[in-house]
Every structure is written in C-alpha cells, then in structure tokens.
Fold this protein.
Amino acid sequence: MAARKVLVADDDETTLFVLGTVLDLEDFEVTLVADGDAALSALLAAPSDAAVLDHAMPGRTGLEVIEALRADDRTSTLPVVLLSGVDRDSLPADPLAAGADGYVSKPFSPLHLIELLQQLMDDRSRR
C-alpha cells in the first residue's frame, strides 16, 4: 500500500519537527510548510490525503485555508484537522462548522492526532 500523503502547516518550527517526525515514523509521506498561503498552494498543486493546519499562521489562517479548500472541487472533500493554541470558543468561527473535519487544541498528543487522521482518511476512502 502506498504511503498516505499528509500536509502539515504551522509557523512553529517545533510543531513542524514533531509532527513531521512522528508522521514519518508512522509511514506517512509528509509535506511541511510554514504558512497558510504555502499550504493552499501545495494542496492545490499536488493531491494529498489529509491536511493538518495551524489556525494562526502568516498569510492565510487555517480557517481561511479551509474555506478556500472547500470552495475548490479538487479539495472540497479533503480531510482537514485544525490545530490551535486558542480555545475553540475563542476562534472567529467554529472550526467544524467552517469545514474542518477535526479540531485539536495545543498542546496535543501526536498519537491522538495520528489516530484522528487515520480515522478521517479511512472514512473518506469508504465513501
């Protein structure tokens, strides 16, 4: 089975390193980017199986990237998890109502995030 492709976007180098390492150990093919504009460009340019987006990033926020992904036929069903150090109730919009498939608060368990990603990708492949 081919490795599942996951894009991770976060402006925090430590978060990128941790997620890149853990996802790689779980045999995911990982693309790491540091801002929302790069995330959107990469996801529109090359297919991915899922995305993990920080909310507060330079360029577009995670919610703005999700809005753009949902508006494009190529990425409208892409499983997306929003990460944020901000309490969910403090975000400008509810992440799930805005199109995210999952929400994870920082600090987070990388293993929980991997389980969530696997579940979302498995659910998508069953459709």
In short: The domain at 5-126 is CATH 3.40.50.2300 (Rossmann fold). The chain has one domain: 5-126. The chain has four helices and five strands. The two ends are 19 Å apart (CA to CA).
